Amino acid sequence: MNMTHYMELLAVNQPWNLLLFMAVPVILAETVAITELYLLYTRNYASPVRTVNRAAGIAGGVYFTGVFLYLMTTAVIPLTGSGGWRGPADVLAVGFYLAGIVPLLGIALVDLGLVAKDRDEHGRMAVHAGLVALFLVVAHVAMIFGMMDPTLLTGAAAGGHGMH
């Protein structure tokens, strides 16, 4: 069976790529999501939980910006230029994975006070929660397409050729 570039990235150089490209961003995002539930329920925005939430949000946004830039320059641009994509599922998996930059950087910008600064703390947390939800959607769509045979959506038999 063929593998998407997304899954290949996670499978090679074990365990480092899995840790760097999946575990770190997901653990930071899940820390934000879990602490977010507590904060929205209690509205205790002066608690140590908010400090953890803010630190994980900023770290996640900054970290994933580095991942995004690295993968764009070392994978996406070269694959696009050479016609090396393995099929539509391949492009969708990588595209949705990289789309995580929007919510993760957005969370960091909210936490740094650069976005939604005209809102009160609860209003900023509402924006924050929406961005967390968006990250969960794009990350799961990336995982679903990433686990597919990349040729599946082409109508070609497995073992098909690159997408030109």
From TrEMBL:
Transmembrane segments: 20-40, 52-71, 91-114, 126-148
InterPro entries: DUF6803 (IPR046547)
A Pfam family: DUF6803
Protein keywords: Membrane, Transmembrane, Transmembrane helix
Superkingdom of origin organism: Bacteria
Protein name (record): Permease
Organism from which the protein derives: Azospirillum thermophilum
